Structure formats: C-alpha cells, structure tokens
C-alpha cells in the first residue's frame, strides 16, 4: 500500500511498451523502489535522472536500465541532485503564466535594448577596428554588385572627366575613386562603398546640372567614407538579422546577401546628418555656400513629387530636417 513516501505511477519496465500501474517509493536507504504486478526494482540516486514536465507530458523518472516512471506530480520526498532540482524549478516556471509573461517581457527588453543600443555600439566598435585589407575586400564585392545593377554611363567622356575632377577639391582622407554609372533602377543616386569608392549615377548628374551641387553630394559621400557609415550600417543590418535568427531560427540569406546590403544601403538618420555636416564643413572650407547641398535636396523632393518614384536618396528620412541643418550653418547674409 502507498505510504507517505510513495506515489502511484505509470511504469514502463524497459522490456515492453505497455505501461504498468505501479508504486514508486523511497526506502530507509534512500533508494527508489518501484513495485508493480508482484515485482520490484531498487535504484540508487546515481541510477536515475529526472525529466521535467513539458507541455502535456508530465514529470518522469528515467532509470539506468531503460525503465521509466511517469508521475502525476513531483513528490516532495524525491531526492534530486542540485542541477536536476533546477530543472524542476524551470518546469514549474514554464507552467506559470506569470513567469511566462515575465520571460516574454525580459526577452522583449533584451531585443529592444540590443536593437537600440547594443547593436549600434558593437557595430561602431567593429567598423572602426577592421583592417584596411578587410574593408577593401568587402568594398570590392559591393562594387561588383553595383556594376551588375547599373550600366556604363551614357554621359560624354569629357563630361564625366569634369565631374570626377571636382572631387580633387575635397580633402580626401581616405582618398576615393569616383565612378559614374547609368543608374537604371537605382535612378538618381550616389553612394560610398567601403573600398573608398564613390558612385554617382547619370540620373543624379542630369537632375542637378550644377557642379557645386554635385560637389556637395561628393562631400556628403566622403563624409560617409570618413566615418565608415556603410560598414557600420551593414554590420547593424547583420546584427538585426542575427536577432531575427535567434527568434526564428532562419539563417537563410544571412551572409549571402552582404554585397547587396552594401550596394543598396540606406543610412540611418544619424549617419545622414553626420555626413551632411561633413559636407557643410567642406563647402565652407572651400568658400562655397552650403546652400547648394540644400538645393540638391529640394530637387530630389521636387523630382519625386513630379514623377512619383523613389530613389535611395529621396527615401532618406526627414529630408526637411537635413535642409534645416544646412540653413542653420549658412552665413547670416545668405
């Protein structure tokens, strides 16, 4: 008969798959004793492990001989090692809605904290410490992707040479090469790659048709290079992908999409404002009014309003805030 240190169990003896009605108890030697159908077995503490309840599957004890006892609940008198007792506590927490909600809240706070603070800090640290050879290799891959997404420029060679020559006015550190391409689906666009390459599209040059505006765009892209924005933004994107993998377990396209990330990168508002400030300072140094940068932003907005398409530059957030920053740094007589 069951006593105060016994419990009725479903016992699988390890020989057949059918469960037996049995009794699990603890004797004066601290052994577990299983009795069923006139049979009994004795197990020392090292001969069994506790299996926590999961979902609709209850608590169980698995024995060294392949037998198992399914328990309706976990008795207080059952002696378990400290690490297995921890499993008991985790199992109880999993069955409590209060602890499930606490766990969910902790996970949400962790994800938001990593997204807002952790990933930006880590990406900035990595980007500033990657060796030049690594940057060149990554940038070369991105440049290959850009070449696939664009066509040869249709502008006259003399026009291209004049535009490229404008870059020499800037303090290029790092010095960049300038490439002009027909943008196709990239449309009126400009971007900087980690291998110190600035890409301008025919569409952007035709839209501006002003050398000082194009110089302002180059200065802006030079700011991205100086601050390694493309690399930081790409690492942030990968960091966010890692968070998604942690939640979903889907690792597809995590690494294979890296060149495309660089080729179609859209910077954060913080990076755009920082690159704009760099361009403002460069234009001021050259005794060229920063208003040309604001004028270019206005043309981009007008182009979108007129034709209803979105280029990567026109999708930069809060363009009016960027124009406002330019006007804040204009000389008082402008």
Describe this structure in words.
- By secondary structure, the protein is an alpha+beta fold.
- Helices cover 50% and strands 16% of the residues.
- The protein has eleven helices and eleven strands.
- It has helices at 82-94, 97-129, 132-149, 157-166, 202-208, 211-226, 229-248, 258-263, 269-285, 291-307, 319-328; strands at residues 6-12, 20-26, 32-36, 39-43, 48-51, 60-63, 68-70, 151-152, 177-182, 190-193, 197-201.
- The strands form two sheets. Strands 4-3-2-1-7-6-5 form a seven-stranded antiparallel beta sheet. Strands 8-9-11-10 form a four-stranded mixed beta sheet, sandwiched between helices.
- Strand 5 (48-51) and strand 6 form a beta hairpin.
- Helix 10 (291-307) runs antiparallel to helix 11 (319-328).
- Residues 253-265 and 306-317 have low confidence and may be disordered.
